[in-house]
Amino acid sequence: MTRNGVTGRGVIPPRTRELLAEAVERKGLCGAALGVASADGQRDTLILGSAACEPRRVPLEEDFWWDLASLTKPLFTAREVLRAAEDGQLDLDDPLSSHLPDLAWAQDTALTSRTLRQLLTHTAGLPAWAPLYTWGDAATIRARVLQEPWALMPPGAPVYSDLGYILLGAVLERVRGLPLRDFPLDCGLTFAPDPARAVATERCPWRRRVLRGETHDENAWALGGVAGHAGLFGTLGGVLAQVESLLRGSWLSPAAQAAATRPELPGRSLAFVGAQPGWSGGSLTSPSAFGHTGFTGTGFWVDPARGLAWVLLTNRVHPSRHGTLDIQGLRRAVGNTLLAAWPE
After folding, report:
1. Which H or E run includes 166?
2. What CA–CA distance (Å, rounded) separates 41 from 197?
3. DSSP one-letter code for 152
4. pLDDT confidence band for 2 (50 / 70 / 90)
5. CA distance linking residue 330 with residue 49, whole number of Å
6. At 233, is the secondary structure helix, strand, or coil?
7. What does the buried/exposed string (b/e) look like for 146-155 if buried means 16 or more CB atoms within 10 Å of the residue's CB?
8. What is the DSSP string of 274-320?
9. In the predicted model, is pLDDT for residue 30 greater than 80?
10. With a threshold of 0.90, does the pTM exceed it?
C-alpha cells in the first residue's frame, strides 16, 4: 500500500501518484483512494487526504466506506438482474409488465412493453431524472413511480436514466421477494455503513448537514436509502475485488459475464460504459475496456486486453458539488498514466 507519499509495491507509477497528490494538496480534493489490480495477481493501493474536511478533518483509512453513487447500477442492480436470469426467474427481453403487472394500471402507456434490456442499456425512452424526493414519503414515491405518466421517447436512443434503474430495482424486489436492502452483498459492499468509518460527501442544503454514512443521492435517500440507481457503499478493497473478478472472468457465470460486457450499442453494454472518445477511462485504453462512474466522485475501469483494472474513489462533492476540480480530467489522467507505465 502507498499512503501520503510512502512507496508501496510499485504497481502505481510515480506520475499517477503525483497527479493525485496535486489534486488533494492544491486542487481542493479532500480525499482519494486508488486501487490497481492486474490479471497476473499484482495489486497496489494509494490513500491520500482526508475522509472529511468539514466540520472537522478526519484521517482517511483504507477500510473506510465510500458512497458509490451510480456504481450501484453495475455492481448491484445490473449484476442482480443477470443473476436472476441465470436462475431462470426472468429474461432480459421480458417486458416490464411481466414483473410489474400494476405498472401504469390506469393508463395506456408504452412503458409496460419496454424491456429489461432497454432499461439496463438506458434505451427505454425514459427521462433522465425527476425530483422524486419532493413527492412525499417512501411509500408514496414507490407507488407514484409506477403510475406516473412519464413523457416517453421512442426506444433506442440512449438517455442515461436513473428512473429506469429505479424500475429495475422494483423488478428485483418482486422477483426475489426481498427489499433491496436485504439482498446479500459481497465483502466490502454494504447498504448500511458505519458513519464513523464513512467518507463524507456533501454539506446538503436540503438535509442541513454534512452527509457521512447516508446516501448522498436525494431520490435514493427518500426511497429509504437504497434504490436501483444508488445507495451502495463500498471500501476500496471491496470495489477492487469486484474489478478483479471482472478482469478474471469470475464476476458472473461465463455466459452472463459475456452478456454483461458485450456491446449492445456504441459505447454501452448491458452493465457498463465502453471505451470511446472522451470517456472517463482515458484515451490509452484498449477498445475492449469498460467501466462506470458515480456522481460523488467514484469510478472503476477494466481493460482486459491490457490485463489491468483500477478503482478511483474520491469525495469530490465534499463539501459541495460546486467545486472547481475537473474530476473527468483527473480520471482520464489517472487511466492514461497507469496504462502508459504498464508493460505490454
Report:
1. helix 162-176
2. 28
3. P
4. very low
5. 15
6. strand
7. bebebeeeee
8. EP-TT-TT-TTS-TT-EEEEETTTEEEEEETTTTEEEEEEE-TTSS-
9. yes
10. yes
What are the beta bridge partners of residue 291?
273, 301
Asked if residue 107 has pLDDT above 80, the reply is: yes
Ordered by where they begin, the domains of the chain are 2-70+188-341 (3.40.710.10), 73-182 (3.40.710.10)
- Go through the chain and tell me how many residues it has: 344
Neighbours of 227 (CB within 10 A): 30
Q: What is the pLDDT of residue 8?
A: 39
> Strand ranges (DSSP E) for the chain?
2-3, 31-38, 43-52, 58-59, 66-67, 189-190, 200-204, 209-212, 233-234, 263-265, 268-269, 273-274, 290-294, 298-303, 308-314
Three cell numbers, residue 25: 494538496
How distant, in Å, are the alpha carbons of 121, 257, 273 from that of 263? 10, 12, 9
> Average model confidence (pLDDT) for the chain?
96
CB 36 within 8 A of CB 338: yes
List pLDDT tens digits, range 142-187.
Answer: 999 999 999 999 999 999 999 999 999 999 999 999 999 999 999 9
Q: For residue 300, what are the contacts with CB-CB under 8 A and spacing of at least 6?
A: 71, 239, 242, 243, 291, 292, 309, 310, 311, 312
Q: Looking up cell 429495475, which residue turns up?
A: 168
Could you count the other beta carbons within 10 Å of the beta carbon of residue 100? 18
Tell whether the torsion through CA atoms of 210, 216, 219 and 220 is positive or negative.
negative
Q: Residue 256's CB: how many other CB atoms inside 10 A?
A: 18
Secondary structure element (H or E) that encloses residue 142, with its range: helix 138-147
User: What does the alpha-carbon distance between residue 125 and residue 115 come to, in Å, rounded to a whole number?
Assistant: 11
308 with 339: CB under 8 angstroms? Answer: yes
CA distance 261 to 255: 10
